Every structure is written in C-alpha cells, then in structure tokens.
Amino acid sequence: MAHHQVLIVGGGTAGITIAALLRNRPNALEVTIIEPSEKHYYQPIWTLVGAGVFPREISERNEADFIPAGATWIKDYVESFQPEKNAVTLRSGEQHTYDYLIVAPGIQIDWDKIPGLREGLSRAGSGVCSNYSYDTVNSTWDALQNLKEGRAVFTAPSTPIKCGGAPQKIMYLTADYVRKHGLQNKVEVMFASAGTIIFGVAKYRATLEKVVARYGIKTKFFQELVELKVEEKIAVFEDRNTGEKTEMEYAMIHVTPPQSSPDFVKKSPLANEEGWVSVDKETMQHTRYPNIFSCGDASSLPTAKTGAAIRKQAPILVDNLMAVMQGHKLEGAYHGYTSCPIVTGFGSLILAEFDYNNEPVESFPFDQSQERYSMYALKLYALPQLYWHGMLRGREF
Q1: Contact 130, 153 (CB under 8 A)
Q2: CATH of the domain at 59
Q3: Which of 9, 101, 163, 192 is the catalytic position?
C-alpha cells in the first residue's frame, strides 16, 4: 500500500491544472495523479473539427507531456473509494492512501443509453454523427459533406453535458454550410432539444434566437432522443411533459449523448443523490469529508461544465486546500463563473460568460452578446494555446 500527500483522481483538464498549480508553489507538495489514458485532448476544438475547419489530430497530445515535473503518474483506473480509511482501490487491486484527495475524473458519456447510437456511428453513410469523442468526431464532417437534401437534426439531452452550448455550435455551422452551398431549399435544420429554451442566460438567448431565425432553423423543445432506427434513418423522441413518443426522419443527425458522473463515483460514498461528488458550491470542499475536494465535470458544482469554469475553479480549490492543510479558515469562494464561446457560423461567435445566477460576467469592454469575428479567432487560435501552455502548466490568467 502506497501513501500520498495529495492524491488526484483524473488527469484531464481539472486534474492536470490542479497538479501543476500545486507543484508550482514555492514549497511544492508531493502530488500523485491517477489517470489511465495515455492521450490528452483539447475537446472544445472538436466542434470545429466536426465542421471541417481543423483535422482532429490538432486536439491530441501525449498525457506524459503534461504530467507536472515532480508529480507521480499512476496509469490505472480507480475502482472504489474508502474515505473513512483515506484510501482508494484501483482496478489492479492496489490500494493507495492519502492525506488529501482531489476527485476530478471528468464526465461519463453514456453512449449505450440510446439504442442504435453505437450502430449508427459505426456505419459509414448512416448520417449519424457526434462530436463527443475523438473516435467519432470525423463522422460529423463526413455526414455534413454528404448532406444534399432532407433534414439535419441536432439533439440535446436532459442530462448535464460538457458545455451546454455545444449541441448548438455544430448546428449553426451546419446551417451556415447549407447556406454557403445553396442548399437552403433542400435541407431543413432542426434543433430537437430536451431543454426548455435555446439558452439559459437572457442576454445571450436574445442573440441566439435571432441566429435561429436568420438560418430558418426549426426548434422543438422538451424532446428527449430515446432511440435511433438506423436502417430507416428515423429518430425516436419522447416528450418530457407528456411521455408521448414521436418519430422524425433524418438525412443527418448529430447526437449529443446523455452524460453522467462516472460509475465509480456514482456508487461511492462521495456522491450526492444525483451521483456527482458532493461539494460546497463556493469552497469545493466535500460536504462530509474535509480532506477531500472536487471540481470540474464530476463535481456537484451547479454551473455549466466547461474548461473555462475549471480555469476559475482550480486556483480557488488549491487555495482552500492549502488553508485546510495549515488549519486556516477557507476564504476562497467560487461564484459559478463559466464561459461558453458559441460559434454562430464560419467566422462569427458570441462569448457567453456568466455566473451561478445566470448573470453575465464578461471579460471584454464590449457587448459580448454580439457576433464577432474577433471572438471566433480567439476560439480558433488563442484559447487552445492558453490551454496547452497556460492552464495545464499551472499559469493563472
């Protein structure tokens, strides 16, 4: 049994950022990261990969290149938590103990919750696509290039997802593609969402409703995708109010699969009733175990699950962890900041930034609800560099 001062579960955006911040401190802590994957992905760029702007390879790096100097990397899966014993058990059977635990394994993509989805994604020419993994993102560009007529459907589930605006981004790019290729009279673009409105923050919603109208996009809300009939190219939706099921034909369907906390978190003593790691929404300290913290997608923090949110969460978490270690009061408070750069077409984007109260918290001295090329360029070129060379290196900005 190995013992660790700080044990981090997850080597994604949150885990690596926190590890780097801890290792960068003057009196660097002993940090161990448990992460099974040998690859690290910049996932926000997958929207643009799916629209043919970039090759998917631009999003991939070796995990080893981002393990902070001096940190230990355990390449394994966590099987279970034993917080009363300050221990975790790995899939290999090894048990590791800790003084402090940070739980940041990200979110789980529940592909199998929709019958027919895996089949559709694996079949060339099916019209079924999804930007939600490195393995499937090329299917979107393939489907888009083959779209000549019929209905292009874009779904959004009722579960929390990575970046709530992502299902719309690829839809707007598709609508722009359709317009640029003179297919407006042959292709109908449809947003079939389990949500209730296009966007939760009123300021940005007003702009997005105009974008929807400009492209002639049809919207249907309260619609949960529950099945794909791949042979017939039919999607089955269930109305969240009435339970009624309806069928919709498609030529192309971009599926945002349902998502949840990882199973090993759901079944653990760390989880709340919904399965997320139960933490105080301001301090990110666990609600029952004071030597455990969590942020990012697996946490119960009631904000949009984005890398931009983690950029603000991680430094506050580290400050509060240090306060616990030194016996001080936790003074760091996270107020729900998150950001969603919503691409509205090739060359235009609105930068939505907001807090727990769905109030705008903007970074620039202009109206960010307006579509701008400068913000599109920020997403394409600046944000990936800030991610790889800033966040993951523990540099605050």
Answers
A1: no
A2: 3.50.50.60
A3: 163
